[in-house]
């Protein structure tokens, strides 16, 4: 075999290889885009971009940019960003290449929630915050329970005081002598016994004050001469009025209290 024949065979092989390469290049598409951070939308430097082509391809995105040449088909493009060999953010996109041309695919990387990211420090902070919230809820519950118990106890004390006062007034009324309306000559004597003997000491004190003021006094002046609260004075005056010992008249914003004639 002469050298001239070998030369022609070599040229023929090269031509065929060029034709195959040209045909493949004619069916190849360009995929390119940028890689962005999810909360700032700024390009991410040095993210690793991979595509599951045959063979697989990968590139480090300088200035946040990447580019691949791919034949028609379905592909998964993956972007990963690492810090100190720890995966920090991640993105995946499916793309279908139908013919040659130019495809733009930008990637937005979101935080990775792998166990590698959730280290012990972050888990400890989450646990501490949860326990602190639980303690705050318990403290608020205990405080509310304390105030509720206090209000209930106050209500019980007030109700018991009113009951005791009404019971004492009822017992005093039972001790009062019965007045015979058919015996007018005894009415004055009986009334005198009621005001001087049958009345409790606190009610008798009111009668004495009114008598000292010529049998007539305003409820406001009466209150100023007693050591009791305004509410108790009002109850005591009502008690005396029910007993028929005094009369109470409205005058302006206050009341005028008079001792009945038979007292």
What's this entry about, in short?
The chain is an alpha+beta fold and 263 residues long. The protein folds into three domains: 3-111, Immunoglobulin-like (Sandwich); 119-175; 184-259, Arc Repressor Mutant, subunit A, CATH 1.10.10.
* Number of DSSP-assigned strands: 11
Q: Into which percent range does the helicity of residues fall? A: 40-55%
CATH hierarchy: architecture of the largest domain? Sandwich
Low-confidence segments, given as residue ranges, are 178-196
Question: What portion of the residues fall into strands of 2 or more residues?
Answer: 25-35%
The DSSP helix count reads 6
Shape: rod-shaped
Q: Which CATH C-level class of the largest domain is it?
A: Mainly Beta
Count up the domains: 3
Question: What is the assigned CATH homologous superfamily of the largest domain?
Answer: Immunoglobulins
Radius of gyration (CA) equals 52 Å
Tell me the CATH topology of the largest domain: Immunoglobulin-like
What is the CA–CA distance across the termini? 161 Å
Largest sheet: 8 strands, mixed
Let me know the average pLDDT: 78
Order of helices and strands: HEEEEEEEEHHHEHHEE
Indicate the structural class. alpha+beta
